[in-house]
Amino acid sequence: MRVKELGKDRRAETITLFIGPQHPGSGHLRLVVELDGDVVVGIRPDIGWVHRGVEKIAETKKFVQVIPLIERPSIIDSANMNVGYVRAVEKLLGVEVPDRARYIRTILCELNRIASHLYGIGIFGNMIGTSTIFMWSFGDREIIVELMQELTGARLTYSFFLPGGVKGDLPDGFEEKLEKGLRYIENRIPEYNALFIENPVTEDRLKGVGVIDREKAVQIGLTGPNLRASGVEYDARMVGEYGAYKDLGFKPVTRPEGDSFARLMVRFDEIDGSIGLIRKAIREMPQGPIMHERTKGMARQVLMKVPEGEAFSRVECGRGELTFFVVSKGGDKPHRVRMVTPSFRNLIGFETALVGHRLADVPTVYGSLDYFPPEADR
Amino acid sequence: MGQKKERVILLGNLENAVRKVGTRLADMRPIRNIRNWGITFSLWPVPLTTACCGAEFAATMSPRFDMERLGVLPMASSRQTNVLIIEGTLTRKMAKAVKIIYRQMPEPKFVIAMGSCAADGGIFWNSYNIVRPKDVLPVDVFIPGCPPRPEAVIRAIMQLQDKIKRKLKYRMDAKERPRKRARRQRVSRGV
Amino acid sequence: MERVLRIASDTLKSVAKELAAEGFDHVKSLTGMDRPEEGLIELVYHISSYLNPALRGRIVEVRTEVDRSRPIINSISDVFPSCRYMELETRDLLGVKFEGNEEPDPLILPEELKNTWPLRKDYKIPEEGVE
């Protein structure tokens, strides 16, 4: 309901509200909201509170030293960011990754996707008021983080992929632990269903809120689960220039409605899909080397000089499609590293999805778009 | 026998005398122990999830590491909190907001700087857009790590508890604690 | 990269309209590169399609250059709304003015770093081991 114009002289005034940089959400973002009573008539996001200048710093570091730098914007998803940069450098070097390394990359990336979606679901639950879901999803996420710590040695900052392959092989006994962990997550999803998804409060708050229809989603360039929840079947893993997705037969999941409920359900569906992909990759993993001959050994990595050229690579992170454009002028430091992160491309979704809704729908749409401010600001 | 009427003449300012006595008493052993016990087991932080360290702080809140058994409960509104945990890198734009948040907190208040970026810049030390938190606020505890493990965060909270028990003096009115003069960050233009 | 188009900066809008008519519908990334020794700033657009099944997965690279002392170019955010924030970011970091997409405040830089264009090659930041 909107307040109608009361006569020619008296117009309804709007209030400007700052939903400021510090809020119990997933980072620093300010939304400048114009309210007409309780209804949002205009919204403008104000970003840059976490802008650390990654692209400028990357020009002062060697190619291998840039890897921790570009992982930091989205630390909960760092394996996927790592793969994007490493694919671009491999195209410049002209090396082909061995098969076993591709399968190990797929396993780590899919585990990281499950952890990233659980983080997103937890923060979403916190934003709409159910801190039970926050505790559950973070507790379940610890299982996945433990598995990744078993494989790489770190909880969040793996830096496990280097140009040419991966740093280490699967440890002994990893397959059994992995199967136990995945079975635990699989048995927990019905409990989320019973408490959170088939809950009339959740359905009331999420269904029909923040609808972005198909043409509009394509036009504003949304990406990731938000795009697939509006019915567009596109996933950067389909295009398949990295990992083992073509060999494993990957298909994206979509939903047609385009509201916040669909965006949440696409994330749960993707967790199921990732569990299937990991199981298949473990079964079909080939034997062989894990690193290409030309880039073997830390000395070669640190002292490597990349030939002159430009390379473009794209990967699918937890939140959407990440693109890298790396330019080298023949030295050991890159000339230009450009990364466009999925949260930066999803920023436009706020303006499209929220105009016309009430103020209480702002956290719902914010959480369902899964916007992560450090990733957008880099 | 007539009763002599007593007249009392007060010398000095009564309010100041009461303040001095109150401050003295609150710092003496039995009351001081109760006061410290109250403060150290209800340190409520402001959720200031900046970046990477915020993910580990959120994991510290999770059921596995459980900060809440020490009394630490993140509170959404900053006017009801007493510790400010700067998780991660502090940019120029955010430093102004952090100063406002710090002033909104009631006394006694504490600051923990979490991560290498909060200590001295970390991996982003040469960026054009970050400041060091120790130039902006008086920091009590630093936590090293990139990001620090949740066990390290809990250890830092316990160190803050020890510091409070050893050193906290009672102040009756809220005054900003003195801090070092802020050093402006130099960016060299042209070589 | 399968298809690379090198165009002059004043033909950018017409090329964008032709690509939109062919079926391309969003911009994946906009990169600005500073070349001080030639006095140019090079802009590289990567454009692709979501809906057209023949073009899905293909990327067109559109390269153009503007003069470094007077970097003004037409904005294509009315043809492709997905590049609006990328153009604002390039304006903050490199100083390129996109006509048709103007905002008074900087997008990701704070007020005190407005018009300092950090990504240009003559803005130096400290390096390890270099005095």
Description of the structure:
The complex is a heterotrimer of chains A (about 375), B (about 190) and C (about 130). Chain A has one domain (about 50-340): Cytochrome-c3 Hydrogenase, chain B (Orthogonal Bundle), CATH 1.10.645. Helix content of chain A is about 50%, strand content about 10%. Chain A has helices spanning about 55, 65-70, 80-95, 100-130, 130-150, 175-195, 200-205, 215-220, 225-230, 235-240, 245-250, 260-285, 300, 340-345, 350-355, 360-370, 375, and strands spanning about 15-20, 30-35, 40-45, 160, 165, 310-315, 320-330, 335-340. The radius of gyration of chain A is 22 Å and the shape is globular. Mean pLDDT of chain A is about 85; it is low at about 5-10. Residues about 175-190 of chain B have low confidence and may be disordered. In chain B, helix 2 (about 30-40) packs antiparallel against helix 6 (about 150-165) and helix 3 packs across helix 6 (about 150-165). Chain B is elongated and about 80 Å long. Chain B is an alpha/beta fold. Chain C has one domain (about 5-115): NADH:ubiquinone oxidoreductase Nqo5 subunit (Beta Polymerase, domain 2). Helices cover about 15% and strands about 30% of the residues of chain C. The termini of chain C are far apart. Chains A and B meet through helix 1, helix 4 and helix 5 of A and helix 3 and helix 4 of B.
